[in-house]
Amino acid sequence: MPRSSARKDLTLKALELFQICARKSSVQATADETGLSISTVSHHLRSLEEHLGVELFDHARRPMMLTPKGQMFLKEIDVALGSIRKATAEASAGNVTETSYLRFGSIADMDSDITPDLAVYLSKKMPQCNFVFRSGSSRELLDMLRDRQLDIGIATMPPEGVNNLQDTPLLRDPFVVVLPEGRTEETADVMAGKSVLPFLQFTSDLLIARQIEAQLRRLGVEMPDRFECGNNQTLMAMVAAGAGWTITTPLLFSRARRFHSKLRMHQFPGKSFARTLSLITTPDCAGSVRGLIDQKLRKLLTRHALTPMHQSNAWLEDRFCLVTGAD
């Protein structure tokens, strides 16, 4: 590409859009993620190439591919943009009211009350901030955090940890057995296959399903009859209707209040296990913002989940609990 005699200024927006487009390999996908028009994204990318005097993308290929020079440029820009974001976060770390942009993600387990209450709280604490709230599975949210599509999120901590991200454990959420109300079988017998009820399972693509399957393998338990479901409410409805039994957690159980009269929650027989919900942030997220959200989330989790579950199931008090630094 010939170098323009009147080069356009290099802008931070153009660099950020280049980084996203390089990851998405599509102007359309970049426009969808940023909320800009296709023409605006294309304009910024063209301006960047004109400024540099090189072609960063092979525009003749679909999906879009970086040229060798584009690949070199992306490598340097990833480092530079990370430094800029970190510097910006540190500069505003002392005053959350001046935060101008925050992308927050949460697992669907929080959608009914915790995330809405948090959104209202943050809008009051950060009056100048433009918010983006997203909901998804833990795996989806972790991918978005790694790709810098989110700044902060609530997700289940995976067994392999979260490299290059910062995590603050929030909640210990133990696994429990849920049966239809009125069933008299012992949970150990149910898990041993001595019940006519089939095992209803979360879909295998979910992190929670992987954790349950791993524990069952460790115990040498096989579940031949399986119904898979990716939605917690549907799973609880199936159990409430007497269609089977399941393994879930108190937090998920608490989200299905409309079915509680037809369900009974039991301790997991034998060796217990739990998932940990954490507040996970990118390295450039301001510590003051992370601290504000962490503090409010603990209050919301206590009000909406811990206290009600402890009142109805006293045996959960030392199992279903907040995680502190001392823990």
UniProtKB/TrEMBL annotation:
Keyword Transcription regulation annotated: yes
TM spans (from-to): none
Family annotation (CDD domains): PBP2_LTTR_substrate (cd05466)
Domain HTH lysR-type: 10-67
Keywords linked to the UniProt accession: DNA-binding, Transcription, Transcription regulation
Family, similarity comment: Belongs to the LysR transcriptional regulatory family.
Protein name: Transcriptional regulator
Annotated source species: Roseibium alexandrii (strain DSM 17067 / NCIMB 14079 / DFL-11)
Lineage, highest ranks first: Bacteria, Pseudomonadati, Pseudomonadota, Alphaproteobacteria, Hyphomicrobiales
